[in-house]
């Protein structure tokens, strides 16, 4: 104690102004209140915390597998919960103890003999003022240079168009960062949660997205293996809907255990239908007869096919509304989805027809009789893209053990829901349970056009008894997919196509990769339909969604009560 008094003197002034040394007590630490040494106490509660967490997670996993309610607990679980709460409170409090100890130690450091012997008043020895010039007023941002800061100001003022940043600087990543900062300052809203780093912005220039400021992350799950036409596929599905991948995976399992599914490609033809106008309906009909005359098809095909080495005209079907003509061109497009390819071919034919019929007025390259990105009867009846039928026979024991329902229940549900229910709703191509769920997830994962999910999800699901077993099939007449072009060349989407074995163009048989992808889409839809229909028939749909597809994040307490 004497040593401490010598090391930590304090200064005290008497009435005469003399300074005398007064002994002080050493500082006490917050950890002195513990009955055991600090390191032993820490070790004990840390081990208790992890042991109880491991035990509780193991027991809860067993309950989930056995469908046992989580709130039913035994004595061992009660003890584990008490140990968990106690250790958690201690570890949380230990952070406070450590902070107090560090603060106390820091306070002691500056107390030395030289400091305590100073006779200069505090207000003269310490400069507590802060000069305004020492404060950094520069905006907080991810910009890399002062030059970028000036460019942001120019974008905000409108002197530099936002869309011209890539061509102006030749650096797509830098352009995205500048544009992002400008958007944040203009709107006053933060884009902190939207990633900027880790993406190849050069890969989307001029083909996938204009004026980018970041990219959205979507989780990708794997359903399968799906046994289709004797080959197993692990199907990537990009989705934010809980239960979707798990449900589709269960359908794949039931199909695999029953010997797999088989598919048939009925047709492969992308379409485009311009709208052209003539002086009279009679003149429009004359051109319609000309276009549909087999004698003229070879000449028209020659005009159409010169637009691409893969484009091959298959047919022309016309309809008339007044003096307006809508010729619907159908053609094969190789491994590309083919919208640009068929549009160029149609333009060549229109130029040729214009020379034969000068009074023709081209109103638009697309007259909606195609019909692209819209639910339509012409697509449902005639098809667009790949027309695929996929089927499987599910054994009765698999229906009962894996799908937890019966053949009779599934047959009845399909008739009343997918057929009669959809008819009562006036559905157009929607005679299914949730084909669009699977189509959208696979489309996003493999770089397809998500908007074409509208017609690509046209599907009729048929479920019938096959003796004691179950026969299920899906007919999808408008699967619009490609394995080259568009988003398929992006790194993530290209990896998913590679997983399916259909990446890029097939050199030996052009078009076969895109056709195989359409078969996989139909097979995955078959698995998803089988599983969801079984869940509905067994009364499991609501229970599974309440368990795996609910989130309380960003929801206030009152909203959670209502849920």
From TrEMBL:
Keyword Transmembrane: yes
Top-level taxon in the UniProt lineage: Eukaryota
A single GO cellular-component term on record: endoplasmic reticulum membrane
Region described as Disordered: 1-21
Single GO biological process annotation from the record: isoprenoid biosynthetic process
Pathway assigned in UniProt: Metabolic intermediate biosynthesis; (R)-mevalonate biosynthesis; (R)-mevalonate from acetyl-CoA: step 3/3
Residues annotated as transmembrane: 36-57, 78-100
Subcellular location: Endoplasmic reticulum membrane
CDD domains in alphabetical order: HMG-CoA_reductase_classI (cd00643)
EC numbers for this chain: 1.1.1.34
Name of the top EC class for this enzyme: oxidoreductase
Pfam families referenced in this protein's UniProt entry, alphabetically: HMG-CoA_red
Membrane topology: Multi-pass membrane protein
Residue stretches of biased makeup (Basic and acidic residues): 1-16
UniProt main location, coarse: endoplasmic reticulum
One function term, GO molecular function aspect: hydroxymethylglutaryl-CoA reductase (NADPH) activity
Catalytic activity, reaction form: (R)-mevalonate + 2 NADP(+) + CoA = (3S)-3-hydroxy-3-methylglutaryl-CoA + 2 NADPH + 2 H(+)
Alphabetically ordered keywords of this record: Endoplasmic reticulum, Glycoprotein, Isoprene biosynthesis, Membrane, NADP, Oxidoreductase, Transmembrane, Transmembrane helix
Family statement drawn from the similarity comment of this UniProt entry: Belongs to the HMG-CoA reductase family.
NCBIfam families recorded: HMG_CoA_R_NADP
PANTHER family: 3-HYDROXY-3-METHYLGLUTARYL-COENZYME A REDUCTASE, 3-HYDROXY-3-METHYLGLUTARYL-COENZYME A REDUCTASE 2
Protein name in the entry: 3-hydroxy-3-methylglutaryl coenzyme A reductase
Native source organism of the sequence: Capsella rubella
